[in-house]
Amino acid sequence: MKRIVLGITMLLIAISVSACTGLTALSQAFEFATDEEIFSFSAISTSTLISDTVVEPLAAVSQVTQLSTTTPDLTIDQIEPYLEMFESLLAQNNGLTVTTTVSDNVLYETMSVFTVYDLLNNQMVYTMYYNTVLLDPELPVTETTDDSQVDEAQTQYEINGILVIGATEYQITGRKELEDGEEKISFKSAIDENNYVYSQYKVEDDEKKFLIKVVENGVIVTESKIKVEIEDGETVIKLESTQGANHSEYSFKYENENGVNVLKIKYQTLLDGIEDSGKIKVEVIIDELTNTTSYQIYVEPDHDEAYEHESDREFNHKDQHDDMDDQDDQDDLNEDQDETDSTTDDVPAGATTNY
Questions:
Q1: How many domains does the chain have?
Q2: Contact predicate 142/156, CB 8 Å
Q3: For the residues 138-147, what does the mean pLDDT come to?
Q4: Which domain holds residue 9?
Protein backbone atom coordinates (compact mmCIF):
# COMPACT_ATOMS: atom_id res chain seq x y z
CA MET A 1 0.00 0.00 0.00
CA LYS A 2 1.09 3.50 -0.73
CA ARG A 3 2.63 5.35 2.20
CA ILE A 4 1.51 8.86 2.93
CA VAL A 5 2.84 11.48 5.25
CA LEU A 6 -0.40 11.62 7.24
CA GLY A 7 -3.98 10.48 6.98
CA ILE A 8 -6.70 13.07 6.47
CA THR A 9 -7.17 13.39 10.21
CA MET A 10 -3.48 13.52 11.09
CA LEU A 11 -2.25 16.95 10.03
CA LEU A 12 1.32 18.19 9.97
CA ILE A 13 0.75 20.96 12.45
CA ALA A 14 1.79 21.69 15.99
CA ILE A 15 -1.15 21.26 18.32
CA SER A 16 -1.46 22.07 21.96
CA VAL A 17 -3.96 20.23 24.13
CA SER A 18 -4.79 22.77 26.84
CA ALA A 19 -2.79 25.86 27.68
CA CYS A 20 -4.31 26.83 31.00
CA THR A 21 -3.71 25.48 34.47
CA GLY A 22 -5.56 23.65 37.20
CA LEU A 23 -8.35 21.10 37.07
CA THR A 24 -10.03 22.76 34.10
CA ALA A 25 -6.90 22.21 32.02
CA LEU A 26 -6.65 18.62 33.20
CA SER A 27 -10.25 18.00 32.20
CA GLN A 28 -9.67 19.47 28.74
CA ALA A 29 -6.51 17.39 28.33
CA PHE A 30 -8.55 14.19 28.21
CA GLU A 31 -11.42 15.21 25.98
CA PHE A 32 -9.67 13.39 23.10
CA ALA A 33 -10.67 15.74 20.33
CA THR A 34 -8.01 14.41 17.94
CA ASP A 35 -6.40 11.10 17.05
CA GLU A 36 -3.06 12.43 18.28
CA GLU A 37 -4.46 12.89 21.79
CA ILE A 38 -5.78 9.33 21.83
CA PHE A 39 -2.49 7.90 20.57
CA SER A 40 -0.52 9.90 23.15
CA PHE A 41 -2.75 8.70 26.01
CA SER A 42 -2.40 5.13 24.69
CA ALA A 43 1.36 5.44 24.38
CA ILE A 44 1.76 6.67 27.97
CA SER A 45 -0.57 3.97 29.29
CA THR A 46 0.95 1.05 27.42
CA SER A 47 4.60 2.04 27.82
CA THR A 48 4.37 2.55 31.58
CA LEU A 49 2.56 -0.76 31.98
CA ILE A 50 5.01 -2.64 29.78
CA SER A 51 7.92 -1.43 31.90
CA ASP A 52 6.27 -2.38 35.19
CA THR A 53 4.52 -5.61 34.24
CA VAL A 54 6.03 -7.32 31.21
CA VAL A 55 9.61 -6.56 32.28
CA GLU A 56 8.82 -7.20 35.94
CA PRO A 57 5.85 -9.54 36.57
CA LEU A 58 2.70 -8.17 38.17
CA ALA A 59 3.22 -10.10 41.38
CA ALA A 60 6.78 -8.84 41.92
CA VAL A 61 7.55 -8.75 45.63
CA SER A 62 8.89 -5.57 47.17
CA GLN A 63 9.79 -4.54 50.69
CA VAL A 64 6.73 -3.76 52.81
CA THR A 65 6.44 -1.95 56.11
CA GLN A 66 3.06 -2.83 57.54
CA LEU A 67 1.12 -2.06 60.69
CA SER A 68 -1.27 -4.93 60.01
CA THR A 69 -0.65 -8.67 59.70
CA THR A 70 -1.97 -9.11 56.15
CA THR A 71 0.62 -10.96 54.02
CA PRO A 72 1.09 -11.08 51.14
CA ASP A 73 -0.41 -7.68 50.36
CA LEU A 74 -2.42 -8.33 47.21
CA THR A 75 -3.97 -4.85 47.33
CA ILE A 76 -0.53 -3.27 46.92
CA ASP A 77 0.53 -5.84 44.32
CA GLN A 78 -2.49 -4.95 42.19
CA ILE A 79 -2.00 -1.17 42.13
CA GLU A 80 1.81 -0.98 41.87
CA PRO A 81 1.94 -1.52 38.08
CA TYR A 82 -0.45 1.41 37.55
CA LEU A 83 1.20 4.03 39.78
CA GLU A 84 3.60 5.33 37.16
CA MET A 85 0.83 5.50 34.57
CA PHE A 86 -1.55 7.50 36.71
CA GLU A 87 1.19 9.70 38.09
CA SER A 88 2.09 10.61 34.50
CA LEU A 89 -1.51 11.10 33.41
CA LEU A 90 -2.99 12.92 36.40
CA ALA A 91 -0.23 15.29 37.52
CA GLN A 92 -0.86 17.63 34.59
CA ASN A 93 -1.26 21.15 35.94
CA ASN A 94 -0.57 22.42 32.42
CA GLY A 95 -2.43 19.72 30.58
CA LEU A 96 -1.03 17.18 28.14
CA THR A 97 0.85 18.88 25.31
CA VAL A 98 1.12 17.07 21.97
CA THR A 99 3.14 18.40 19.05
CA THR A 100 3.06 16.65 15.65
CA THR A 101 5.56 17.57 12.94
CA VAL A 102 7.59 16.12 10.09
CA SER A 103 10.02 13.56 11.53
CA ASP A 104 13.72 14.24 12.09
CA ASN A 105 14.33 10.49 11.78
CA VAL A 106 14.82 9.49 8.13
CA LEU A 107 13.15 6.11 8.71
CA TYR A 108 9.83 7.66 9.67
CA GLU A 109 7.58 10.32 8.15
CA THR A 110 6.00 11.77 11.27
CA MET A 111 7.11 12.68 14.78
CA SER A 112 4.78 13.27 17.74
CA VAL A 113 6.21 14.64 20.97
CA PHE A 114 4.10 14.71 24.11
CA THR A 115 5.10 16.09 27.47
CA VAL A 116 3.85 15.14 30.93
CA TYR A 117 4.85 15.99 34.49
CA ASP A 118 5.23 13.75 37.52
CA LEU A 119 4.19 14.40 41.12
CA LEU A 120 7.47 16.27 41.71
CA ASN A 121 6.72 18.52 38.72
CA ASN A 122 9.58 17.02 36.74
CA GLN A 123 9.04 17.12 32.99
CA MET A 124 9.05 13.90 30.97
CA VAL A 125 9.04 13.77 27.20
CA TYR A 126 7.82 10.92 24.99
CA THR A 127 8.76 10.91 21.31
CA MET A 128 6.90 8.76 18.82
CA TYR A 129 8.20 8.24 15.28
CA TYR A 130 5.90 6.55 12.78
CA ASN A 131 4.76 6.00 9.22
CA THR A 132 1.09 6.14 8.24
CA VAL A 133 -0.61 3.82 5.75
CA LEU A 134 -4.20 4.10 4.54
CA LEU A 135 -6.14 0.87 4.95
CA ASP A 136 -7.92 1.46 1.63
CA PRO A 137 -5.77 3.95 -0.30
CA GLU A 138 -7.20 3.16 -3.74
CA LEU A 139 -10.96 3.09 -3.25
CA PRO A 140 -12.39 2.85 -6.78
CA VAL A 141 -14.45 5.91 -7.57
CA THR A 142 -17.59 5.12 -9.57
CA GLU A 143 -20.78 6.95 -10.39
CA THR A 144 -22.29 5.53 -7.19
CA THR A 145 -19.36 6.42 -4.92
CA ASP A 146 -20.22 9.43 -2.82
CA ASP A 147 -17.94 11.74 -0.87
CA SER A 148 -18.77 10.06 2.46
CA GLN A 149 -17.45 6.73 1.18
CA VAL A 150 -14.20 8.33 0.05
CA ASP A 151 -13.82 10.18 3.37
CA GLU A 152 -14.54 6.97 5.30
CA ALA A 153 -11.83 5.09 3.40
CA GLN A 154 -9.29 7.86 3.90
CA THR A 155 -9.85 8.10 7.66
CA GLN A 156 -9.07 4.42 8.25
CA TYR A 157 -5.34 3.90 8.59
CA GLU A 158 -2.57 2.30 10.59
CA ILE A 159 0.71 3.62 11.98
CA ASN A 160 3.97 1.77 12.56
CA GLY A 161 7.05 3.05 14.33
CA ILE A 162 8.89 3.44 17.61
CA LEU A 163 8.28 5.14 20.95
CA VAL A 164 11.37 6.66 22.57
CA ILE A 165 11.47 7.47 26.30
CA GLY A 166 14.93 8.54 27.36
CA ALA A 167 17.25 5.68 26.42
CA THR A 168 14.39 3.15 26.11
CA GLU A 169 12.76 2.30 22.79
CA TYR A 170 9.57 0.34 22.13
CA GLN A 171 8.07 -0.89 18.89
CA ILE A 172 4.60 0.60 18.41
CA THR A 173 1.69 0.02 16.07
CA GLY A 174 -1.63 1.81 15.89
CA ARG A 175 -4.78 1.46 13.87
CA LYS A 176 -7.93 3.51 13.30
CA GLU A 177 -10.91 1.82 11.69
CA LEU A 178 -14.68 1.67 11.66
CA GLU A 179 -16.45 -1.25 13.31
CA ASP A 180 -20.23 -1.47 13.05
CA GLY A 181 -20.32 2.24 12.26
CA GLU A 182 -18.23 3.19 15.32
CA GLU A 183 -14.65 4.42 15.36
CA LYS A 184 -12.10 2.19 17.06
CA ILE A 185 -8.48 3.13 17.69
CA SER A 186 -6.03 0.46 18.82
CA PHE A 187 -2.42 0.82 19.92
CA LYS A 188 0.36 -1.55 20.99
CA SER A 189 3.73 -1.00 22.70
CA ALA A 190 5.92 -4.07 22.37
CA ILE A 191 9.21 -5.49 23.54
CA ASP A 192 8.76 -8.37 21.10
CA GLU A 193 5.90 -10.33 19.52
CA ASN A 194 5.17 -12.22 22.74
CA ASN A 195 5.57 -9.40 25.28
CA TYR A 196 3.50 -6.28 24.78
CA VAL A 197 0.66 -4.11 26.05
CA TYR A 198 -2.34 -3.57 23.77
CA SER A 199 -4.94 -0.83 24.14
CA GLN A 200 -8.19 -0.14 22.33
CA TYR A 201 -10.12 3.12 22.47
CA LYS A 202 -13.86 3.03 21.88
CA VAL A 203 -16.82 5.34 22.32
CA GLU A 204 -20.01 3.53 23.32
CA ASP A 205 -23.19 5.33 24.39
CA ASP A 206 -21.20 8.58 24.67
CA GLU A 207 -18.81 6.83 27.09
CA LYS A 208 -15.11 6.99 26.21
CA LYS A 209 -13.03 4.10 27.46
CA PHE A 210 -9.73 2.30 26.93
CA LEU A 211 -9.49 -1.48 27.03
CA ILE A 212 -5.98 -2.67 27.90
CA LYS A 213 -4.42 -6.14 27.75
CA VAL A 214 -1.01 -7.02 29.19
CA VAL A 215 0.57 -9.97 27.37
CA GLU A 216 3.58 -11.76 28.84
CA ASN A 217 5.25 -14.66 27.02
CA GLY A 218 2.26 -14.85 24.70
CA VAL A 219 -0.29 -15.14 27.52
CA ILE A 220 -2.79 -12.45 28.55
CA VAL A 221 -2.04 -11.85 32.24
CA THR A 222 -4.24 -8.80 32.86
CA GLU A 223 -7.24 -7.19 31.21
CA SER A 224 -8.28 -3.70 32.28
CA LYS A 225 -10.77 -0.97 31.41
CA ILE A 226 -9.91 2.71 31.92
CA LYS A 227 -12.40 5.57 31.84
CA VAL A 228 -11.77 9.29 32.35
CA GLU A 229 -14.63 11.08 34.10
CA ILE A 230 -15.34 14.46 35.66
CA GLU A 231 -16.79 14.31 39.18
CA ASP A 232 -17.60 17.50 41.09
CA GLY A 233 -15.30 19.46 38.80
CA GLU A 234 -12.38 17.07 39.31
CA THR A 235 -10.84 14.69 36.82
CA VAL A 236 -11.05 11.07 37.94
CA ILE A 237 -9.58 8.07 36.14
CA LYS A 238 -11.43 4.84 36.87
CA LEU A 239 -9.80 1.47 36.44
CA GLU A 240 -11.34 -1.99 36.38
CA SER A 241 -8.78 -4.80 36.28
CA THR A 242 -9.14 -8.57 35.93
CA GLN A 243 -6.30 -10.99 36.58
CA GLY A 244 -7.48 -14.58 36.58
CA ALA A 245 -10.20 -14.88 39.22
CA ASN A 246 -9.15 -11.61 40.85
CA HIS A 247 -11.13 -8.45 40.09
CA SER A 248 -10.37 -4.89 41.21
CA GLU A 249 -12.00 -1.48 40.79
CA TYR A 250 -10.12 1.77 41.47
CA SER A 251 -10.81 5.48 41.29
CA PHE A 252 -7.67 7.65 40.92
CA LYS A 253 -7.44 11.41 41.31
CA TYR A 254 -4.75 14.02 41.84
CA GLU A 255 -4.66 16.43 44.78
CA ASN A 256 -2.30 18.90 46.38
CA GLU A 257 -2.28 18.22 50.11
CA ASN A 258 -0.44 20.74 52.31
CA GLY A 259 1.85 21.64 49.41
CA VAL A 260 2.52 17.99 48.49
CA ASN A 261 1.21 16.45 45.26
CA VAL A 262 -0.46 13.11 45.94
CA LEU A 263 -2.59 10.47 44.28
CA LYS A 264 -5.83 9.57 46.05
CA ILE A 265 -7.31 6.14 45.32
CA LYS A 266 -10.55 4.47 46.31
CA TYR A 267 -10.67 0.71 45.82
CA GLN A 268 -12.96 -2.31 45.87
CA THR A 269 -11.34 -5.68 45.28
CA LEU A 270 -12.04 -9.39 45.15
CA LEU A 271 -8.63 -11.03 45.57
CA ASP A 272 -8.17 -14.74 46.25
CA GLY A 273 -11.85 -14.92 47.14
CA ILE A 274 -11.65 -12.14 49.75
CA GLU A 275 -13.55 -8.87 49.31
CA ASP A 276 -11.92 -5.64 50.46
CA SER A 277 -12.42 -1.88 50.08
CA GLY A 278 -10.85 1.31 51.34
CA LYS A 279 -8.71 4.32 50.50
CA ILE A 280 -5.08 4.74 49.46
CA LYS A 281 -2.85 7.80 49.35
CA VAL A 282 0.37 7.81 47.33
CA GLU A 283 3.14 10.38 47.45
CA VAL A 284 6.70 10.49 46.14
CA ILE A 285 9.49 10.70 48.71
CA ILE A 286 13.12 11.60 48.04
CA ASP A 287 16.13 9.97 49.70
CA GLU A 288 18.43 12.93 50.35
CA LEU A 289 21.53 10.72 50.57
CA THR A 290 21.07 8.88 47.27
CA ASN A 291 18.77 11.41 45.54
CA THR A 292 16.52 8.50 44.54
CA THR A 293 12.75 8.49 44.81
CA SER A 294 10.16 5.96 45.93
CA TYR A 295 6.43 5.76 46.48
CA GLN A 296 5.11 6.05 50.03
CA ILE A 297 1.72 4.32 50.07
CA TYR A 298 -0.76 4.77 52.91
CA VAL A 299 -3.56 2.19 52.93
CA GLU A 300 -6.76 2.60 54.95
CA PRO A 301 -8.94 -0.51 54.57
CA ASP A 302 -12.60 -0.07 55.53
CA HIS A 303 -12.51 -3.12 57.80
CA ASP A 304 -8.93 -3.38 59.00
CA GLU A 305 -6.10 -1.33 60.45
CA ALA A 306 -4.23 1.22 58.37
CA TYR A 307 -0.70 0.47 57.22
CA GLU A 308 2.15 1.88 55.13
CA HIS A 309 4.13 0.53 52.22
CA GLU A 310 7.22 1.82 50.43
CA SER A 311 7.49 0.86 46.78
CA ASP A 312 10.25 1.28 44.19
CA ARG A 313 9.72 4.11 41.73
CA GLU A 314 11.87 3.29 38.74
CA PHE A 315 10.68 5.57 35.98
CA ASN A 316 11.89 4.77 32.49
CA HIS A 317 12.48 8.50 32.24
CA LYS A 318 15.42 8.41 34.67
CA ASP A 319 17.81 7.84 31.79
CA GLN A 320 16.20 10.80 30.06
CA HIS A 321 16.90 13.07 33.02
CA ASP A 322 20.47 11.78 33.10
CA ASP A 323 20.82 12.53 29.40
CA MET A 324 19.45 16.02 29.95
CA ASP A 325 21.90 16.56 32.81
CA ASP A 326 24.75 15.33 30.61
CA GLN A 327 23.65 17.72 27.87
CA ASP A 328 23.50 20.59 30.37
CA ASP A 329 27.05 19.75 31.49
CA GLN A 330 28.20 19.68 27.87
CA ASP A 331 26.49 23.03 27.21
CA ASP A 332 28.31 24.52 30.22
CA LEU A 333 31.63 23.21 28.91
CA ASN A 334 30.89 24.66 25.48
CA GLU A 335 30.02 28.02 27.03
CA ASP A 336 33.25 28.00 29.05
CA GLN A 337 35.21 27.16 25.92
CA ASP A 338 33.49 29.94 23.99
CA GLU A 339 34.35 32.40 26.76
CA THR A 340 37.98 31.25 26.71
CA ASP A 341 38.19 31.55 22.93
CA SER A 342 36.58 34.99 23.09
CA THR A 343 39.07 36.14 25.73
CA THR A 344 41.98 34.81 23.71
CA ASP A 345 40.74 36.52 20.55
CA ASP A 346 40.72 39.87 22.39
CA VAL A 347 44.39 39.58 23.40
CA PRO A 348 46.77 41.48 21.07
CA ALA A 349 49.33 39.44 19.17
CA GLY A 350 52.52 38.88 21.15
CA ALA A 351 50.89 39.67 24.50
CA THR A 352 51.20 37.35 27.50
CA THR A 353 48.11 36.30 29.41
CA ASN A 354 47.91 35.11 33.01
CA TYR A 355 44.93 33.03 34.22
A1: 1
A2: no
A3: 44
A4: 3-139+153-341
In a domain, 348, yes or no: no
* DSSP run (H or E) holding 242: strand 234-243
Residue 352 lies in a domain: no
- DSSP string for residues in 269-317: EEETTEEEEEEEEEEEEEETTTTEEEEEEEEEETTS--EEEEEE---TT
If 0-12 CB within 10 Å is exposed, 13-18 middle and 19+ buried, where does residue 75 land? buried
Task: Tell me, yes or no, whether 349 lies in a domain.
Answer: no
Residues 316-330 have pLDDT tens digits of 344 444 444 444 444
Report, in angstroms and rounded to the nearest whole number, the Rg of the chain calculated over CA atoms.
24
Q: Supply the pTM of this predicted model.
A: 0.71
Res 296 pLDDT > 50:
yes
The predicted-structure confidence for 76-113, as pLDDT tens digits, reads as follows: 888 888 888 888 888 765 456 788 999 999 999 999 99
**pLDDT at position 266, please?**
95
Residue 268: Cβ-neighbour burial (10 angstroms; 0-12, 13-18, 19+): middle
